[in-house]
Amino acid sequence: MVELSGLDLGIILAFFICVVSLGLYKSRKEKTSEDYFLAGRGLNWVLIGFSLIAANISAEQFVGMSGQAAKDSIGLAVASYEWIAAVTLVVVACFFLPKFLKSGIFTIPEYLEYRFNHQARLVMSLLMVIIYAAVTIPTVIFLGAKALEPLFQQELFGIPINIVTLSWFVGILAGIYVAAGGLKACAWADLIQGSALIIGGAIIMVLAFMALDKPANFEGTNAAATINSSLGVEQTATLGEKFMALKESKMHMVLPRASTFLPWTALLIGIWIPNFYYWGLNQYIMQRTLGAHSLRDGQRGVVFAAFLKLIIPFVVCIPGIIAFTLYNQKMQDNAMNLETLNKPALEAFQQAKTDPEGAKMVIPFDSDFANLKPELAGQILSFNAAALGKEIPSGQYLNAINGQLLKGVKKTHPDFDVKQELVGYDYDGAFPMLIRYLTPKGLRGFVLAALMGAVISSLASMLNATSTIFTMDIFREWFNKNASQKTLIWIGRSCIPIAVVTGCLIAPVLASPKFKGAFAFIQEFQGFISPGILTIFLFGLFVKKAPRICGVLGLVLSPVIYGILFFGFGDIAFLNRMAITVGVIALILAIITFINPLKEKITLPEQKKIELRWSKGSVYFGIFVIILTVILYGIFW
C-alpha cells in the first residue's frame, strides 16, 4: 500500500473544502422546489457542459472502463461508449431537449403523464428509483472505493481501510453537500471537478506514456526488457513503435460477432439504446439541461459536453491499456491474493479437493486463469467433474470445457454452491495502479482529489436525481398534492441519507467476479429498463397516434422480455439483448397503434419562463463533433 504524504492529504482536503464551499455558497438562496431541484432554471451553458461531464465521468470510467480496456479481448473497443455518446448528445440537443424544455417539466417521468397517462409516470418513476438505489449508486460507490483502496495503508488512525469503510466514506461525503445545496450546489461543484478530472486524467495519461517510453525510470532496470518483449518490439524501440504495437494488438473499435461484450453487430443498433436512454432520458443527466436558463444555453452546454466526450478515451481507455502492459504481473498477483477475488474460492478448493464427490460445490474460471494456471485449472476441472458425477467433455480450451460442464448446474444441482469465478487478472485495478506507482507525492494528491471529485460528483448527481423523482413524481403526486415548497425540499433532503445507506450496503458485494466487472454490471442491469423507456419515449415524441396504454405497456414489457433473454440466452451480448427487446416492444406497440390509434389530440403544456430560441452555432458545432467522431473511428477501426 502507498502512504499518502501530508502534502497529498492537504491538497485533497483543500480541494474538497473549496468545492463544497463554492457549491453551498452559490445555492444559499434556495427557497422553492424549483430552486433546489432545478437550480431555479438559471444554469448557463458552461455550467451545463462541465456538469454533464462531471456527472457522467466517475470511477465507472476511470476504474471500470479502464479495466475493460486492459483486457485483450476488449481493448479500445470499449471507447465506443464515449464516442457514440458524443453523437447521441448532438441528437439530444437538437431533437429531445427542445420538446422537454418547451413543456417545462421537472422530471423525465413527468413527460409521460402529459403524453400517455398518470400510471406511466408512476411506473417509470418507481423503476428509475429502484435502478438508481440498487444499481447505479452502489456501483459508483464501489468503484470510488476501489480506486481509493490501493492508495491507503491497511489502517488509518486505527480504522481498517477496505472496500467497506471506503464505500461509506465516499457515500457520506457526496450525501452531505447534495442534501444541503441541491442541483445548484452540484452544478457549481461540477465546474471545478469536471475541469480537475480532465486535467488529472491527462496527467496520468502523460505519465503512462512516459513509463511506456522509459520503463526503467519508473519500474527498475529490468522492466524495459520485459515490457519490450511482451510488446514484441526491439529493445531499442521508440515510444512511437511501442504505441503502434499496442494499437495493432488492442486499439481496435470492432470486436468479433461472437463477443459477449461489444460485438460489431451491437454498433449497428444495440449500443445506441443505452446511449439514448442515458443521455436523453436519464434524470440525473437531463436534470442539468432541464435547469437551463434558455434553450440556447441548454443546446450549447450539451454540444460542448459532446466534444469533451471525444477526449475521454484518451485519458481513460489508453492509460488502462498501458497499465496492463506495465503491471500485468501485479494485476495477476492481486487476482490470486485479494480477499474479494480468487482467494476465497481457492481456499475452499484446497479444503474440499480431498473428497470431491462429497463436496457440494463447483468452481468456474475464465480464460485468463486457464492460460496463466493451466495445471491448477485442470485440477479444478477434474474436481468439478467428480463433484457433479460427470465425464469431462471434450474441447479445446480448459475454460470452455469447464463452462460446458457447469452449464445449467444451478438447475440440475440447486443444492450446490457455485463459487466465484476465478479470474486471471484484477482488471479493475489498472487505473489505480497508475496512480499508485507513477504519481509522485503532491501530484498524487491532486490526481486523487480529481478522481474522488469525479466519483463524488457523479454520486451527488444520482442522489439528487433520486430525491427529485421520489419527491416530485411519487410523494407529491400520490401522497400530498398540496405539499408546501418547504415540505417538498425537506422530503428531497430526507431521501438522500436513505439512498446513501442503501448504496453503501450493496456496494461491497460488487467486488465479486461473478458480476464480470463493475462497468459490465451497471450496463447489464440497466438493460432491464432502458429498452422500454427509450421505446415509449420514441413513440411518445414521434408517433402521434400511439395510444395512451403504450406508456405503461412498454415499461412493463421491458424487464419481462429482457429478463427472459438474460436468464435464458445469456450467451447473447447484452447490447444485442437490448436491441431485441426494443424490437419486440416496438413491434407490439406498433400493432396496438395500428389496431387502436389515438383519436384525441394530445395537448402538451407549454411554459413561458424559458426562452426557446434555437442556437444555430450549436447545430454547426454538433455536425463538426460528428465528423470528428467518424474520423476517430476511421483511425482506430
Q: How far apart lie the N and C ends?
A: 39 Å
Q: What Rg is obtained from the alpha carbons, in whole angstroms? A: 25 Å
Low-confidence stretches: none
**Molecular shape:** globular
The CATH architecture of the largest domain is Up-down Bundle
User: What is the count of helical runs?
Assistant: 27
Overall structural class, as computed from helix and strand content, comes to: mainly alpha
Number of domains: 2
Helix content: over 70%
What can you tell me about this protein's structure?
- The chain is mainly α.
- The chain has two domains: 6-337 and 429-526 and 607-636, Up-down Bundle (Sodium/glucose cotransporter); 343-422, no CATH class.
- The protein contains 27 helices and four strands.
- The chain has helices at 6-26, 33-38, 45-56, 59-70, 80-103, 108-115, 118-148, 163-213, 216-219, 223-231, 239-250, 272-281, 283-290, 295-337, 343-352, 367-372, 374-388, 398-406, 409-412, 430-438, 443-478, 485-506, 518-526, 530-542, 549-568, 574-595, 616-636, and strands at 155-156, 159-160, 361-362, 417-418.
- The strands form two sheets. Strands 1-2 form a two-stranded antiparallel ribbon. A two-stranded parallel sheet has the order 3-4.
- Helix 3 (45-56) runs parallel beside helix 14 (295-337), helix 13 (283-290) packs across helix 21 and helix 24 (530-542) packs antiparallel against helix 25.
- The model has no long low-confidence stretch (mean pLDDT 84).
